[in-house]
Amino acid sequence: MDVVVVGGGIVGVSSAYYLAERGADVTLLEKASLGSGSTDRAAGGIRAQFSTTVSIELSKRSIEVWERFEEDFHTDIEYRRPGYMYVARTGSTADRLREAIPFQNDHGVESEFLSPEEAVEYVPGLRTDSYVGTAYCPTDGFADPHLGLQGFSRAATGVGAEIRTGVEVTDLEAEDGGVSVGTTDGTYDPEYVVVAAGSWSPKVAGMAGVDLPVSPRRRQAMVVDPESPVPESNPLVTDLDAGCYFRPERDGKALVGGHFDEADPEQDPDRYRTSTDLDWTVEAIEEVSGVADYFGPASEIVRGWAGLYAVTPDHHPIIEESRPGLVVATGFSGHGFMQSPATGQVVAELVLDGEARTVDVSALRADRFERGEALSETYFSA
Ligand SMILES: Cc1cc2nc3c(=O)[nH]c(=O)nc-3n(C[C@H](O)[C@H](O)[C@H](O)COP(=O)(O)OP(=O)(O)OC[C@H]3O[C@@H](n4cnc5c(N)ncnc54)[C@H](O)[C@@H]3O)c2cc1C
Fold this sequence. Notes:
A hairpin with a 2-residue loop joins strand 10 (178-183) and strand 11 (186-188). The protein folds into 2 domains: 2-66 and 145-212 and 313-368, FAD/NAD(P)-binding domain (3-Layer(bba) Sandwich), CATH 3.50.50; 84-138 and 215-309, D-Amino Acid Oxidase, Chain A, domain 2 (2-Layer Sandwich). The strands form 4 sheets. Strands 5-6-4-14-15-16-13-17 form an 8-stranded mixed β-sheet, sandwiched between helices. Strands 8-2-1-12-19-18 form a 6-stranded mixed β-sheet, with helices on both faces. Helix content is 26%, strand content 26%. It is α/β, with parallel strands linked by helices and 382 residues long. The protein binds flavin-adenine dinucleotide. Flavin-adenine dinucleotide is lined by residues 6-12, 29-32, 36-39, 41-45, 168-169, 196-200, 204, 219, 221, 257, 307-309, 330, 332, 334-338.
């Protein structure tokens, strides 16, 4: 089976690996360099704390791969698992977190509801007076997205995939008679094409007349050297009411992110501002200093950047065979790194078996919005 994968982000390289590992003849086309889209701009968070079955399952099956990544892919992705903690300032946010926990536990996710006083055991700097409750899952964590990308791409070439960078897909046709992929360096006529082009997916799928409700939204992050070090054992902490998060980086530093502006305009993925805004930096520091006491006035900004979330109306991805021969895996919002291993497996199954077995992704079809079957998630990505 000849397959062309469009996009050399984490979703594309994972899909290329699982397809080639199962014997497909895979060519991955990336218009720039591997990871140059959103993947190299991700915070690396890996969690199973969600409130929909399909998100939990995509994460759980992915975590099984991340856990064994070093042995299986011979790449140390610096996977650390101090957990994820969601902190709630209001009773209604706390209620939403509390209500999701039995559902998560039923799905094998070891989350628990903790009082702010109990949460201090894990987040020593937590400003307990600001919070009414927290949700904590000790098996969540984070890893380095670029190392994950490298591991998958090396493994993909190791099982025969061809990875071509600097080759842009400029034309795509998928009719019942077959698939044709026009590029800046020749034309391909594979049996299948996989559109894994992140924020560019609507443009790429649109070439074949497939309309994807995916919209690029800008998100900023930075590394901070805080006044007092963030312990390595500190979980990734997300304040759902303030819209910010932080996690330990190396040497006591912190990776800080969040979104505070009501306005969240759609971006042109080829022309958005990739550095941080000064007012965002000030607000982000203010917000995280309200979460935990590590971020006093002597904190220093080490570096910052902006990237894109490829967002769908319900913040869940679209994974489907949109047309015979055209599979789409996109719109992962803030979850595309963590869920990429299971997504790659599912993509390989859609192409080679005609249906997904690893995770039931029928809830992720693009027409769910027209059918009034959009999903609903409690645990937002800030
Ligand atoms: C600040 C920030 C923090 C984040 N934190 C997390 C996190 O903690 N955990 C998590 O799981 N996710 C996180 N994410 C989200 C994560 O980065 C994305 O979900 C993930 O990288 C999506 O991967 P992808 O392969 O779908 O897309 P991308 O990485 O964007 O890759 C798409 C690729 O397609 C290529 N392409 C586009 N058009 C063409 C074409 N015509 N021809 C050939 N190639 C083309 C692009 O050049 C690009 O390399 C974060 C994102 C941001 C911005």
